[in-house]
Structures are given as C-alpha cells and as structure tokens.
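Handout, section B. The chain below has 209 residues.
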Amino acid sequence: MSTLLIADTDVAPGDPTTLAMRAVGLEVVSICRSAAEVAVAAAQHRPDVALVARDLPGDGFTAIDHLLEVRPDVIVALRCTDLDDGDLVTALRIGVRGILPAHLDLQSLATSMLAALRGEAIIPRETSARVVSAYQRREASKRAAAETALTPREWEILELLAGGASTSDIAELLTVGKGTVRTHISTLRRKLGVASREDAAAALRERLG
C-alpha cells in the first residue's frame, strides 16, 4: 500500500478523509498541522504522495519545500479554497503535481490522489486555463521590465503599486523602510517618464494589456 502524508488542519486521524484514502489503497502515515511538522514527518515517514493545504499554518508552500527537500520524488497535491494567479504559477514552479479545490467530495479527492500517484495530471480544466494565462502575463511582465530597464526590486514595487498597495504596504511586504520604497518609486517614475505613482501603475497595466 502506498503511503500518504496529509498536511491540513481540517483532517484528523480516523476521520472520513483518512478512511476514503485507505479505501483506494493510500495509507495515511502522518497528519500534520503546520509546515514545521511536515519537515519532521517527511524525514520520518518518507511518503509516496502528499496532500497539502495552501492555508496550512506556517504556509503550505513552505511545507512543500520541506517535503521536496527530504523526498524529491514525492508527488504533491495542493488543496486550496482559492489561489490567485501568482500562486498558481508558484505552485507548479516549486513542483506541485496537482491542484484540488477544498470543496471536492471525499471520493473524488481520494481518486484524484490515486491518479496523481499514477502520474496523471490532476488540475481542473478551469485552473489549467488560468495557469496558462498567468504564465503569459508573467512573461509579458518580464519583457516589459527589460524594456524599461527597471531593476528586479523596482519592478516588484511597480507591480505592487499596480495592485493598489500603499507605501506602507510595500514596506511591510518587502521588509524595507518607507523611505527606501519612496526612493525606488521616484527612480522607477523617472525611468518610465511619468509624473506620479498612479501614472506608473497605469503604465504597467497598459503595457500588460
């Protein structure tokens, strides 16, 4: 029987989820409540497949990094209520093999995990379309950055501005001072040839269509 690690605060030992997995031949060897627990359990159990919640305490992506560091060939599926487009691209980039909606019924969840173990793609059709779209936007963003000669940090700040982030928001997200953020904004405005941060954000949205 293949082994399964679950990292999800909504799953408990012996509950219907673990029983459904066992019914399709997946033995749940560990149920983790945080990314830190995943690091320990992965080394101890070396599972064949893993189901990780995106909203896991300590971050689902961090948990996946722990898993793949210990067991590079583990098959990982991400369970999520919702993912923004950036998260979709990140999930696939770090090695997630499948993306499953949190509301999926138990039978479908179990059979999807079994399909992942067989090497099948388990990404819903509508999610696949979003991944392609998000990837195309990311590539367009990279090309636009090259055309404007912005540094990676300036481009990162510009994307945050376009998303509606304030100077304080950006400083907190990037762990830098507000003065540093203002300096970057001033520089990227000059490079873009615009008069204000609002004009800079509008220029980005126009470039990316």
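Note. The chain has two domains: 2-129, 149-207. Compare this with the example in section A.
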